[in-house]
Amino acid sequence: MSDTPTYIYKLVAHTSPVPLDPADLPPALPISDIDQSSGFIHLSTASQIRGTLVHFFTSDPHVFVLRLPYEPLARLPGQIKWENPERNVCGPRPGEGLFPHLYNGFKLGKDEVESVWKLERGEGGWEVVVESDGPFKAWLVY
């Protein structure tokens, strides 16, 4: 990976509420079924969020987007691996590149998360929400 991101993001389904204040997060959030079965925590860069929403959160009225500073996670060797998405899980995702995956024993909580955004799906779907200029787009760091 030649361009090191400032932040990477974890999307959490509306069925797993996340406190909006990172200080209120537990040391480790519950692990999603897909993360558990994969053996790592699935993450996205800012430019990959749209595709992740469209492929995995089609029926969610809202999701929680967790912003994680990249550098502290990348300092420990082997914690972040940049890997291709599995086609059998999400189909082809051309142009999205490698995805960051967190291999740290499923620890994702108040020590890793800098901020949380509750993202509401609009009438036009996730594409409209993510692509429109507004506070969420300003919050994302590309």
Automatic annotation (TrEMBL):
SUPFAM superfamilies: ADP-ribosylation. It comes from the Eukaryota. InterPro entries: DUF952. PANTHER family: BLR1139 PROTEIN, DUF952 DOMAIN-CONTAINING PROTEIN. This is DUF952 domain protein.
